[in-house]
Design a protein that fits this description.
Blueprint lengths: L1 E5 L7 E4 L10 E11 L1 H8 L12 E2 L3 E6 L4 E6 L7 E11 L6 H21 L7 E5 L4 H12 L4 E6 L2 H10 L3 E4 L4 H14 L4 E4 L3 H11 L9 E5 L12 H6 L2 E5 L7 H20 L6 E6 L3 H6 L6 E6 L1
C-alpha cells in the first residue's frame, strides 16, 4: 500500500510503499482510509517531542486517526491501531464512530481531535454550567474555534477570547465570542483588561491552549486582595507559547482556583468511552446541520512531504485525502 512513512524522528513523512497492516486480534478491523487530519499532535509524535511518543526507532506510518470504510462498507471515523495516513489501517472496533450521511470525509476527519481538545475540558475538567463566563486563551486556532462553539452549545453566557491578530479575533465574534483581548498589547494593559472583565462578569472557566507568558498574565489578573473570590477553573490543554510558567503562591492562596490539565493520560477510560459513544456522534450531527463548523485544507497523500511542513492558514486543519 501507499503510505506516509516516518523513518526517523524529526524527518518528514515520505510517500512510499509500505507493508499492509495485519489484524492481530478479534477487537481489530481493517479500514480503507479516505481521509486523515494532520494535527500538531501528529507532528509532535513524529518528531518525538510529545510525551506519548514511542522511543523505538522503527519506520512508522504517520497519523493517529481518520475516516474510511470497513470491509462491510460501513463508513466510520476511528482511532488507529496502526498509522492512518495510508491506504489501509487497522482500527479498534471499540474506538470508532459511524459517520452520518451528509458529512464529508474531510470534516469528519478534522473534527474529532478539536472536539476532544475542547469538549473533554469543558465537560469533564470544569463541568461547564449554563450561564457561566468562559475565557479561551489562544482561540484563533482550530481547537480554539471549536471551543467557542461548544462553550456556547453547552450554555456559556459570555465567551471571551484571546489571540495575537486583531482581524482574526474580530472574526471570532461571528463564531460566537462576545469579546476579545489582544495578546500583543503591553502586559499591564492586558492584565487591566482581564481584571475589568473579571470584576464585572466573573470568569468561571479558562480553557488555555497557550500556557507560557499569557497564562502567567491571566493568573496574575485573578490575584485577590484577601476578600472572597468567585471560583475559577483553569484547564491547560496546550502549550504553544511555552511548556513552563512561573506561578506565585500568593495567587493560589488569594483565589478560589482549580488548576488542571486535559489531554492523553488525564482522561479516564470512562471519559474516553463517552467521547466515542456520545460526544462525537452528537458533534457529527451538529456538523451535518451546520451548527458546528470547521475549515479544512485538503491535500492528496502523494503530496504529504510538501504539505507536512507548509504553514496552514490560522484556524484551518490540514487533511490528507487518500
Amino acid at each position: 500500500m501507499k503510505a506516509a512513512v516516518v523513518y526517523k524522528k524529526g524527518e518528514l513523512p515520505q510517500y512510499t510503499d509500505f507493508p499492509d497492516p495485519i489484524i492481530e486480534n478479534e477487537n481489530q478491523l481493517l479500514m480503507n482510509v479516505k481521509a486523515s487530519a494532520v494535527k500538531n499532535l501528529d507532528k509532535n509524535i513524529a518528531s518525538g517531542k510529545h510525551y506519548s511518543a514511542d522511543d523505538k526507532a522503527t519506520a512508522k506510518v504517520a497519523g493517529g486517526d481518520g475516516v474510511g470504510f470497513l470491509e462491510d462498507g460501513t463508513r466510520v471515523y476511528a482511532l488507529g491501531v496502526t498509522g492512518m495516513i495510508a491506504e489501509k489501517a487497522v482500527v479498534d472496533k471499540h474506538k470508532m464512530v459511524k459517520v452520518p450521511e451528509g458529512l464529508d470525509d474531510c470534516t469528519a476527519a478534522a473534527l474529532p481531535n478539536a472536539v476532544a481538545g475542547s469538549a473533554m475540558a469543558l465537560r469533564f475538567r470544569v463541568d461547564i454550567q449554563k450561564g457561566e463566563t468562559v475565557l479561551i486563551n489562544g482561540a484563533t486556532g482550530v481547537t480554539g474555534k471549536i471551543a467557542i462553539q461548544l462553550a456556547r452549545h453547552y450554555g456559556a453566557e459570555k465567551i471571551v477570547v484571546t489571540g495575537r491578530k486583531e482581524e482574526t479575533l474580530k472574526g471570532l465574534l461571528d463564531l460566537g465570542a462576545d469579546e476579545y483581548v489582544l495578546l500583543t498589547q503591553p502586559d499591564e494593559d492586558f492584565i487591566k483588561h482581564i481584571k475589568k472583565i473579571h470584576s464585572t462578569t466573573p470568569i468561571n472557566i479558562i480553557i488555555d491552549y497557550l500556557w507560557g507568558h499569557s497564562a502567567e498574565l491571566i493568573l496574575k489578573s485573578l490575584k485577590g486582595n484577601g476578600s472572597f473570590t468567585p471560583k475559577t477553573r483553569f484547564v491547560s490543554v496546550g502549550s504553544l507559547a511555552g511548556d513552563t510558567i512561573q506561578l506565585s503562591s500568593e495567587i493560589l492562596r488569594s483565589v478560589d482556583l482549580q488548576l488542571s490539565g486535559s489531554g492523553f493520560g488525564s482522561w479516564t477510560k470512562a471519559e474516553m468511552m463517552q467521547l466515542i459513544t456520545e460526544i462525537l456522534p452528537e458533534m457529527f450531527d451538529l456538523a451535518v446541520s451546520k451548527k458546528l463548523v470547521i475549515e479544512t485544507v485538503a491535500v492528496a497523500l502523494k503530496d504529504i512531504e510538501k504539505a507536512w511542513s507548509e504553514t496552514i492558514p490560522d484556524g484551518k486543519r490540514l487533511v490528507i485525502t487518500i
